[in-house]
Amino acid sequence: MADLSLRNIRKAYADFEVLHGIDLEISSGEFIVFVGPSGCGKSTLLRSIAGLETITSGDLIIDNERMNAVAPSKRGISMVFQSYALYPHMTVFENMAFGLRIAGTPKSEIDERVRRAAEILQLDKYLHRQPKALSGGQRQRVAIGRAIVRNPRVFLFDEPLSNLDAALRVGTRIEIAKLKRSMPDTTMIYVTHDQVEAMTLADRIVVFNDGRIEQVGTPTDLYRKPANLFVAQFIGSPAMNILKGKVVERSKTSARCLLDCGVSFETEVEPGRLSQGEAISVGIRPEDVELHDGTATDLAFTGSIDLVEHLGEVQILYLDLPDIREKFLMKAGGQSTFERMQGICFTVRRQNLHIFDSSGNAVRGER
Amino acid sequence: MNGARHAPEAERTDFLAVLAKVCLVTFLTSLGIVVLYPLLWMALNGFKTNAEIFGNPFALPSGFGVANYISAWNQGIRNYIATSVIVTVGSAICTVLISAWTAYGLTRSKLPGKPFFVGIVLGGLMLSPTVAVIPLVRMMQDLGLYNTYWALIILYTAFRIPFTTFLIRAYMLGLPRDLDEAAIMDGASERQIFWKVTLPLCKPILVSCVILHVLFAWNEYLFAMIFTSGADLQTLPVGLTSIMAKHGTNYAVVFAAMTLSALPIVITFFAAQRFFIRGLAEGIGK
């Protein structure tokens, strides 16, 4: 059980600042996932929480205790590394028992705790093997086992599945979800750049970009109500389509917008947001696009198919829209037949438009 | 049709490959003979009498009596081997442990100005032992270590640390840092990380370093001759020259003594050959 609080955390290497003041409150028992592109600072923050990196300024509080200067092993934290980091010269048992032996735990207790963890992770048969005699998935389970035996208050995972193949990744992801259910009081922080892992495992997702938090929220919140253009494009696969346009008419409560592809629409806007002539971006998720027969009058788009990707149950169509250089992506059912250069008409429901102002922040007119 | 045209070409390639292999095997066999034959000849001559050695030096001995070997053993070889073993083992342990700890510091610590310290340690490779002999003799005399085992152990250790550190450092640079960090998370101190994680992982290079050191210390002549006097403290190379001086005319005993002195090192090398090659390949290759 541990509440974790990050207050204005900054991390700099010489003059180069990589974390620019991170504020985050994590409740006891929460499963938090850090996502973001490479180099955004998510792993640095995780390592700072672990104590493997020193925090330049700010406070790391675990259960009301400031932990900045506390040794990593005294923070009540366990970490699972991306590379597993198993000691190759030790057996599975010795790997899992290493931390307990260092701490001077009695032999009988070590034995009991290691065997219990091995049982949970179905490693009992492999306790006397060395890591080199195990498969990737088994090694990952040993790394998790090594973390479990220490009964941590906070569990840290640093991209634990990135070294596994696709099938094993799904299996291990389910194992981790089960593990979390079996340890409801343990706070877990998980770093990944895999959106599926983030969406399926997290209670809340923290999206990082360039050393800053862009948005914190539940997976559904992030998907449905992205706070800005970055989150909108980062969450969801394929990424959200972004169409440029501008506000052509602004009344007290609404704005009429014209997109570069020639489609115009009206939207409700809070007072003070969007001014006449302001450039806007409109986000449309590929899965929110609906085909129609050319009779729709509101938000009716036309385009031609440039490429069709068949993914089995769905197809992804790459469309050329008038006066737009970037391809517009839409998802269509796997049964329909599409051909290259075929003309296509589609529409989007008003509530599925994501409107962003000139600085990239969401304008929640329709929500 | 196509196959028929390609057939002579394939045959020619096969022939060239076989020819290259034959040349290579012949060259390596010749090289082996050049290295091994003198050793074999030396060992066989240890079984002969002086008359046999001069009468037919390249013939096999008439019998394999070990009288010459026993005689050599009793005429001081036993003491020389004991001294060599003490000095070699002592200096090997000191050298490898100090070098490993130094390499650990140079690869793992956040020491400011680390490249400078790396330069200083590795700069020791440039230092010629011959140049330092006179001050070292004075120092050892002043410290009361002259003509003791310690004089040789200290000197061998000091002069081999730069090279050994260089090898171990190269190997440690290739070890994943995640293991250190995992050990830190497990609560291990620097000392525990060194002894329980890093050192066991360095086993191949440590074995290589021990073998290289043993080869050096076992055969070292200059320091052994200058810093020791008296048969009870002389190492094998110095002792062998004494035997040659004393029994200059009894070549059979001299050959037997030389064979006995070479034997431990040959056995050590073959016993640890696997680690030796692996350690050097992994360490220097990076």
TrEMBL record, chain A:
Domain ABC transporter, chain residue ranges per copy: 4-235
Residues in coiled coil: none
InterPro entries: AAA+_ATPase (IPR003593), ABC_transporter-like_ATP-bd (IPR003439), ABC_transporter-like_CS (IPR017871), ABC_transpr_MalK-like (IPR015855), ABC_transpr_MalK/UgpC-like (IPR047641), Mo/tungstate-bd_C_term_dom (IPR008995), NA-bd_OB-fold (IPR012340), OB_MalK-like (IPR040582)
Keywords in alphabetical order: ATP-binding, Cell inner membrane, Cell membrane, Membrane, Nucleotide-binding, Transport
The keyword Oxidoreductase is annotated on this UniProt entry: no
Stored SUPFAM superfamilies: MOP-like, P-loop containing nucleoside triphosphate hydrolases
GO MF, any single term: ATP binding
Family: Belongs to the ABC transporter superfamily.
The protein's name: Sn-glycerol-3-phosphate ABC transporter ATP-binding protein UgpC
Lineage: Bacteria, Pseudomonadati, Pseudomonadota, Alphaproteobacteria, Hyphomicrobiales
TrEMBL record, chain B:
InterPro entries tied to this protein: MetI-like (IPR000515), MetI-like_sf (IPR035906)
Residues of the ABC transmembrane type-1 domain: 81-272
Topological category with respect to the lipid bilayer: Multi-pass membrane protein
Cellular compartments annotated: Cell membrane
Record field: transmembrane: 15-41, 53-74, 80-104, 116-137, 149-172, 193-218, 251-272
Family, per entry: Belongs to the binding-protein-dependent transport system permease family.
Record protein name field: Carbohydrate ABC transporter permease
